[in-house]
Records
---
Amino acid sequence: MNVREQIENLRAQVRYHDEKYHGMDQEEITNYEYDQLYKELLTLEEQYPEFMSEDSPTQKVGGTVKRELRKVRHDVPVISLQDVFTKEDVYNFVKKVSEQVSNPKFVVEMKIDGLTVMLRYHNGKLTEGITRGRDQVGESVYENLLVIKSIPKEIPTKLPYLEVRGEVYMSNETFEKVILKQNDAGGKKYKTPRNLASGTLRQLDSRVVRDRNLDIFVFNLEISEGKEFISHSETLKWLEDQGFKTIPDYKVCTTADEIWECVSEIGERRSSLSFGIDGAVVKVDNLNDRRELGMTSKVPKWAIAFKYPPEQKETVIRDIKVQVGRTGRLTPLALLEPVILAGTEVSKATLHNQDFIDSKDIQIGDTVVIQKAGDIIPEVVRSIPEKRPSNAVKFTIPQICPICNSPTVRDENGADTRCGGNECLAQLSRGITYFASKDAMDIEGFGPSSVESLMSEGYIKNIADIYYLKEHRDELIEKGIIGREKSVDNLLNAIDKSKENDLDQLITGFGIKNVGKQTARELTSSFANIDDISNATYDQLIMLPDFGDTVATSVLSFFSLNSTHELIEKLKNAGVNTQSKVSAISKDDRFMGKTFVITGTLPNLKRDEATRLIQMHGGKVSGSVSKKTSFVLAGEEAGSKLTKAEGLGVKIIDEEEFNNMIK
């Protein structure tokens, strides 16, 4: 078989398995076997470009070629629901509905914590899939939805046009597997299944989506040309008959008591579910009743979303240990009797500082109530003194650093206690890890374990030593400290790449007390290079936006140290950029006096990149919306900040408008 015939044969095999998988929801070979076929075809086409063809699977979706997410206008507005938080709110909703329509029935459903999509079918075949987006426009993720097995690619009833709404999610089990795989590979870290599902669905390579095993629950029928329905529950049953995976365990209720019983039952079950939920939805069942009830300017009057308070459980504090952070801050950490909370095991929780421990009267041995802030971060809510054992022990943050035995000092005007030593190994290790983190120099694959291994072997003692690791490449490969040859080379390449970062990332990475990313950007917007910053006076610094005495003094103190000057010289010799790319261009203050809030996922810009552009042009970025907000830059799944902006009349812009403002 010649090369041309070999390529055509491979194309035929890939097309066949694409059709089986995408069109018929069947698999005859494993993902690995498919990927090997695809990879072999891709390699041959690259080696023999004269045989390339536009209809090759490598050039089309289904063969999973990378692509741009295209904008698509919605046929039905994608609206949010009114959030409620109490039993009284639910009963008031039922009362208002009952005053407007006769003998209403309600459907109670779980509110799946995922990413909303609209599926479009023409004559029974899936033709499009769109994300929620903003206003009346979403983004097509059709090619990625094709690889989600639970989405039917064809349905038995061939309506001219059908649109359904669903929630794409990732199960807790799949999330754990993906995170474990990403941790091993040093990839991006996600805190929740919802965030990972959202990031996955917007991937430009559907092979990634296929590997991550996303799922969907369909919860609403939006358009059904050629078929009429009386109730929402009727549509759900019909959708099930068509092969859709609908919201499980929904119930039809007639009274407020029945509704509340269902809402409470879902709340009790949520920690044992195999997927995440962020509430319960109560909807009027009859579709004519919905039309009669109508909408306010923002939400429908026929539905509400009940949001549960954080799940709380009791457990026992076995011990309290102290961690030393990169700034020398001593943080007490409660070691807990393990307990399942919001779906995961919790065995630790931060106690912040001595004032926190004293105010909540926390002792070792106490029974405490814990919850997850935002269903993510474990926190101690309160102690239960009446359950305190006789051998409980009061805890005081030590006066000697547990790592280096240096004296500890409490902040003069704060609650934190810090190590007073300059050579504390814990501070150095966490400082170097922070320097390499995404918030600072963004050296991919250089996490805490790599830092600790290299420090213990004597290869790095400070951040500048990172840029001299290439001198020890062969030793590192031979010893296997950070992996084999490929791992070492990947890390060294990432380190080299970081040399070109803008100066504000370097300043952030220094970990100067009271100086974060925004402060670093102010410095590099006003000074041309690191030497100018180092030589800046108090009077110059205090004039910068948002610089007070505390920040100015911290900057002066850091750059007055001989060790800082030695560090900078070593970084320069290694070729690390110390020039400000922002101040190198003419300063453009078009956003001076303007405050932006960024919310949701932008199509192309990372949030950090958008922040940098706003600040480069003299604007400020805030984390919350208020009457003083000038613009809300909104992307996919913008959420409550967008709703608040609409209520306050704040101007909302998308990425395209933002780019036009900069141009």
---
Amino acid sequence: MNLARLATQLLTRHAALRAWLPAALGLLALAGAVALSVQSLSTILPPPLWWRALWSPDTHDIRQIIVHDSWLPRLAISWLCGALLGLAGTIFQQVLRNPLAEPMTLGVSAGAQLALSVATMWAPALLGVAGQWLALGGALLAALIVFGLAWRGGLAPVTVAVAGLVVTLYCGSIGVALQLFYAPYLRGMFIWGGGSLVQQDWSNVMMLASRLIAGGLCAFVLLRPMTLFGLDDVNARGLGLSLRRMRLAALALAVVLSAAVVSAVGVIGFVGLAAPALAQMAGARRLSQRLVIAPLCGALTLWLTDQAVQRLSGAMGDLIPTGAATALFGAPLMLMLLARMHRASRLPADHNDARHQPVGVAALRGRFIGIALLTLAAFALALDFGHGPQGWHFSSLDEFSRVAIWRAPRALAALAAGAMLAVAGTLMQRVTGNPLASPEVLGVSAGAALGLIALVIGRGDAGHVARIAASAAGALAALLAILWFSQRSRFAPDRVLLAGIAIGALFQAVVAVAIASGGERAATLLQWLAGSTYTITPTDAVLALVLCIVLCALTPLCNRWLQILPLGEASARALGVSTRGARLALLLLIALLTAAATLVVGPLSFVGLTAPHFARLLGARRPLQQVLLAAPIGALTIVVADWLGRALLMPRELPAGLVATLIGAPYLMWLLGRRR
């Protein structure tokens, strides 16, 4: 009895300590932010002059002017931007019923950045007088396109989320292409794209403060309808909710809040995604609680990050984008909290996704054969048809023997990589039940990229073998980290996704800081990150093809798991399936497919996101049907993209992953616009 009582007391104390952990970490972060702020201010101005610098600075003292017009507005901006992004992220995740939704979901950030890039190249005079309005206009235009694509589908959460992500990819791809061609002229965009909080007056503070107050009031006015969005659409309609009108109003509010931040300081990633997750981990279960706690988490995260950036970077603090560095501080905190969470949960299913009529097996077989034949034809065309001094022409027999040695490895590697990414994306979306899941979200490709970036920064121009080894080591480290952080929750889909996103955010932060330095290193990283096959050798191509055949051949063995896991934990156990073991095996297969493809075409091709949606729009409903249809779609996309990127703008080249997004995104937008 005494032992049982002692064990009960220990368990109770352990549970109490776990419940206080988020609050303790929050207080620690607050203390760190305050300490760094005081230290930063002390280096600029002695403490006796702080009060005077705040209210009536001496115009003859440059230090007081700096504090009043630059340091204090920057401090206030960090609070306001973090709070606005936390509020917008909470609204997005609640309305779209998706833990991956964030302020960047509806193309807000990508639209603003593209608008400023275009203005920088062709209308630079407008930047000085209407830079913020250009960014705001680009953000709102991108969101309007998303709403237009999803309107016929009743603004269903899945349709809105997918349309937003496709618009984001398309705008981002155009922006990357401009940066590759005009890198010297868009150096400032590298810094702005990472979210620079540098201020020169109080105008942005006043603007964002008014947006936060008005947005908070509107959010609480919409509290009841947004709470009902947590139900499926049938039950929400039964309670008298006008789905399309209320969903449009809530999403418009979140878009306006996000666009205000983008127009003021640029793109700040991760905060809008992490703040709602941190609020939930802190114990906020009700929407009303999250609408208050998530903005506080966002403000604290961005405040701490900005002060740390100023402290660590010293005199160069103005050139390091705070928005990019946010993940360096927020992601480890998010991973730490995820590692201590035991409860497995299941992503909410979306019952409002418009379904096409089922397609017969014979029709699906015909479509598969047609796409496979089209892929082979594109492969042959990529080998034989090209652009040379005589223009576009088919190669003669003698010419073909000389050019095939260069073209064949690239085309073969592109085919294998496209198929592997498509299969990995299909498995990822099936396992997690999330239409926004993709190999890029898992974090393995981010780990591969981190390995390459570490090699480039540490050793400069390293050899091809060293690059492959560094990428493979990074992918393996990321996979082990994700599995370790997810194992306590029995590899629950939402925990795996959040762990992958946190690791991916670390990768994006490192990339943004590295690219902000500009120069040849930034251009090289942009080319590889966009999905380049420039350095493929015959050995790499054969290895990619062998890995593709072996790993794709293992996929049919997982068909039973893919059909049973979406039924839930209890049903899966009743049918004799160990959910923990099945999810672990599927995650390993996804990671291997992703890592192998990333070594070929880089981490940001997004074929793993779009190919499963193409397969589903063509009628594939069962897991194995979707895999078999998505694989040739992915292979066809990358082969055609690599061929066009190599030949279309000769002697210049565009990375295959970038061209794949530029080709696939408009067609997917057209399909989404026609869908009811």
---
Amino acid sequence: MLKPIPTPTRELVNLDGIWRFAIDSRVGDEPWTGRLQTPLEAAVPASFNDLFTDPEIRDHVGWVYYQRTVRVPRGWAGERILLRFDAATHAARVYVDDAFMGEHVGGYTPFDIDLTDVVSAGGEFRLTVAVSGDLTNETIPPGKIEVGVTGRKKQTYFHDFYNYAGLARSVWLYSTPKLRIDDVTVVTGFEGTTGTVRYEVKAVGAGDVRVRIADAQGEVVGAAEGAGGQIEIPEVVLWKPGAAYLYDLTIELTDGGEVVDSYTLPVGVRTVEVRGYEFLINGEPFYFTGFGKHEDTPVRGKGSDDAYLVHDFQLLDWIGANSFRTSHYPYAEEVIEFADRHGIVVIDETAAVGLNMGVVGGMTGKPPFPTFSEQYANDRTRAAHAQHLRELIGRDKNHPSVVMWSIANEPASNEDGAREYFEPLVTLARELDPTRPLTYALVMFANTKNDQIIDLFDVVSLNRYYGWYVATGELDVAEDYLERDIQSWVERTGKPIMMSEYGADTQPGLHSVWDQAWTEEYQRDYLVMHHRVFDRFPQFVGEQIWNFADFATSNGVHRVDGNKKGIFTRDRRPKSAAFALRDRWRGLDGRKPGTTQ
């Protein structure tokens, strides 16, 4: 799916702002058939949960309604007219005036609604969007809804971050020609100093395709004709971690020699490969330093915010991080585009978090019933997971910053049924994109003796909390556990190994001379211990700490005001460990510790 952008043949109108807002229990049965009867207004983009002081809204289970009027530009006569939702968490139904126009399930990927036949250039229409944050065992991520003793519905979910919902990303009205470019796929490479850009263009309607590629100064460095082909770039400048370089690939669809549609796609020329124990970018070993993150800020929830986007990347640069994982869902496409422009490497993850009944059983790992069963992760769950993969890869396949797909976080890969569930998804992901490695983040109680799917993947990504959930406050014991665990994966897999999560909850301002959990000193010493172990393994390719910043979670006695494993507070103030990390990471420059390459 091509992101809407303004081009010589396309226009778009941003619909962000203040919309009328209501929850389903306070409006009639068909509230879209007229002006929404509500005193409330909500910001778009933003999660709705923290905008209001009303607890019934914050924890609402069911549908909420957003509404505004929209005017179509008068110059769009004869064009296709579409609505674009960058995301609606987790499901949406769209109404124009009194008519139902379409729906989408999946909270973190975009979708379009075609309005061509129902609106007119220069006209105005009433737009109502129903959004549901409900999670079931047939959604990604999964959850369940129960009715409590008070008769009120309650959402239970099996992931440790708050279930923010609503229109958390931008909404657009945009136009395209009826003869149009529908999709573009690029695959890049290089040989010596010559770069290659293989492209495939899908178009709707008859017409001829021509493409050209320009460098950062706007000079055309290559061209081709046809819907598929390859362009060579002499003296290519590669896209590299920390040194981003982007070309502009312009595709034009012509009819009778006249350009009827045009689209420009930023392209970074680079290669990604796993070879033995190495993760290679442009043929050179790469060592990940960075974080798992969340789209999470005060008041906005998961709402996109350009100021936080810029500041977060500044903090990544300050601390010396070169990468992050989009834990545990696809982030807004603007985040990935920013990474493209600034040379930050991304592990792009699906929203498949919570596929693990063992987590419900606590650290025992003993599920109340099998994860992969009709009761929980069944064929319908996997179908939703597959659709999510299609939409994620379809959206992000052309971004040079994205170097690996993570298709799940902490699934029950140690349980029977895991292979039957995941093998078709791995096959699908490789069909959709044969160029990038695949991984999944391994839960602590999936080990080398019971994991059933690691052979299907390219990189071993470990989520481990020795010294926190296991051997709390005993860093010497934790160090022994960690080293033996990593060694077992080295011996079993022969694959690159990285730590995708490790961390300790830390209360800013809490100090101790002892190894006391929750103190700033303990977080620092905990990380130092891990890095000491990582550096003993030449097979190790990266460290991504959990988490970049403190974030909101569900209610629970084990969380006080959210998850506090952040190296930065929720409002982005550094904890003591940030300075120790800065000393380590700024000296690595993408290299494995102890190497000179």
